[in-house]
Specification:
Helices cover 36% and strands 19% of the residues. It is an alpha/beta fold. α2 (20-30) crosses α3, α14 crosses α16 (472-489) and α15 packs across α16 (472-489).
């Protein structure tokens, strides 16, 4: 099944000029089925499916012997041939890779890393030609003619300094206890430049790792979504993710079919019918439906926000500006909403720290934010209110109010205010009573929002305080829509000052 649900763009000319066809030829010449399964009997020649060939062509895109992608993230449920693909990638990188190649199979635990490695050894043992070229050891394969080696490593990252990888095959990246091993291996490839690549093949899992932060796999997955949406341009990063929508019924064959490229072929339909009855739902969703799970509950039903995207007509409208800001380490966002029965929601501007760049000195430029508000109001004089969470921004609110801007103080930590505001926004989205401009950052922040339920009701929060998944744009949109619907009922124009409603 091609393409998968998420696929980062790769130029066709680099697919055609890359090494994909060589990898495919190598796989079909030397790849064997290593254990009895629905895909074939052990020892039989490996037969690549069309979707696997397309995946290989995309992963190995490049030009003049150089890889386009430094990092490749491949996400798919279990039993779709991940280990076989990993073995082919590792073995190809050893046999036909650069001279002096250092290829590594890595995983959270050494036994997991050995799964891909052992399959590669079995392929060598099944081939007289490859057996003559290589020397096999328990955790290493040598290619003496090229001075190349293929080794097994595990998550004790402190012992991996000094390596010079040309290819890294990361198995089940979601299980890494933290990001240390990934960082060590990816940084170690730097000396090789575009002659090196890291390929992570994993099922999804729980979003957080043992530190309470977003796991490295989930962090990369969210980054891949940004690249796929066009929110970030990064030709060195590739992601292909097979998954079912969050709202899909995990008990239904339609869900299994859309999330498993090998459904009914490499993996048996009967196995799914058995597994769904004996597997806890979160485990089944991650391992069989390709979905990330957490201990929190997502807020908007999957697909409901996307269904509200439509062309906007902002001519001669009255506006509310929703403003949720931070000082450091998070994001600051201005979201607009029109004052009408069915508000139109649009992004004005966002300032967001890149979570992949560790810069402790990063701060939001306060003057830039203030000037953007001035600029928008000058261009759109029918701004009724600038609704702001006052935390850390009291000075800006006072300055703008003294200049004559209608500032409304709206603490997002006030549950009695946020509970009904979130309910209004939720209902408007589900009932398609609002439209939006499809801004990808706003969509991401909304997808990050989870619900907190207490005696006051339901409101949106971050999954946990340590999480780097931001929801500031979601908060700004909620408060903008709340005030837009309220001002529609009580249309008085505010005089300059700071108001609390």
């Amino acid at each position: 099944m091609w393409p998968p649900q998420w696929l980062t763009p790769v130029p066709q000319n680099l697919i055609e000029s890359g090494e994909g066809e060589f990898v495919i030829d190598f796989a079909e010449a030397f790849g064997v089925v290593t254990k009895d399964s629905i895909a074939g009997r052990a020892g039989e020649q490996l037969h690549l499916r069309d979707w696997q060939k397309e995946l290989i062509r995309h992963v190995f895109a490049g030009q003049d012997g150089l890889y386009r992608h430094a990092i490749n993230l491949i996400l798919m449920p279990r039993k779709n041939g991940k280990s076989a693909l990993g073995s082919i990638f590792g073995l190809y990188s050893l046999i036909l890779g650069v001279r002096g190649a250092e290829v590594y199979s890595v995983a959270a635990e050494k036994e997991q890393a050995r799964i891909v490695f052992q399959d590669a050894k079995r392929m060598i043992e099944a081939s007289e030609e490859l057996s003559k070229l290589t020397k096999l050891y328990r955790d290493a394969i040598e290619l003496p003619s090229n001075g190349s080696v293929y080794r097994v490593l595990s998550a004790e990252a402190y012992s991996k300094e000094g390596l010079n990888p040309s290819a890294v095959i990361f198995d089940e990246l979601h299980a890494q206890p933290n990001r240390e091993l990934f960082d060590v291996m990816s940084l170690a490839m730097g000396a090789r430049g575009r002659l090196a690549t890291l390929i992570a093949i994993t099922t999804p899992g729980v979003r957080t790792d043992t530190t309470g932060q977003d796991s490295i796999a989930y962090t990369l997955y969210q980054y891949g979504q940004k690249v796929a949406r066009g929110e970030v341009e990064d030709p060195t990063f590739f992601m292909a993710s097979w998954e079912a929508p969050a709202e899909a019924d995990h008990t239904q064959p339609e869900t299994w079919r859309m999330s498993n490229p090998g459904y009914g072929d490499i993996c048996s339909a009967e196995d799914f019918e058995s597994a769904v009855r004996r597997t806890p739902e979160p485990e089944f969703r991650t391992k069989r439906c390709g979905q990330w799970v957490s201990s929190a509950v997502s807020w908007l039903p999957s697909g409901s926000w996307e269904a509200c995207e439509a062309p906007l007509d902002l001519t001669d409208k009255e506006y509310i500006i929703g403003f949720d800001g931070s000082f450091s380490g998070d994001s600051t966002v201005l979201v607009g909403a029109t004052v009408e029965d069915e508000p139109q929601v649009f992004m004005i501007q966002a300032w967001e720290k890149d979570p992949n760049i560790h810069d402790a000195t990063w701060r939001v430029d306060i003057l830039q934010v203030e000037n953007k508000i001035r600029e928008f109001v000058t261009a759109n004089p029918k701004v009724k209110e600038i609704v702001c969470d006052p935390y850390r921004w009291q000075r800006s609110m006072q300055v703008l109010a003294e200049e004559g801007y209608p500032i409304v103080e709206y603490p997002s930590t006030n549950a009695r205010r946020m509970v009904p505001a979130c309910a209004k926004f939720f209902d408007a989205v589900v009932d398609k009573k609002l439209r939006h401009d499809g801004d990808p950052l706003l969509a991401r922040h909304l997808s990050n929002a989870v619900v907190k339920t207490d005696n006051l009701g339901v409101r949106i929060v971050k999954e946990n305080r340590a999480s780097s998944r931001r929801i500031d744009a979601a908060v700004a949109a909620v408060i903008a829509v709340d005030r837009a619907l309220q001002v529609r009922i009580e249309p008085e124009q505010l005089t300059p000052g700071v108001y609390v409603f």
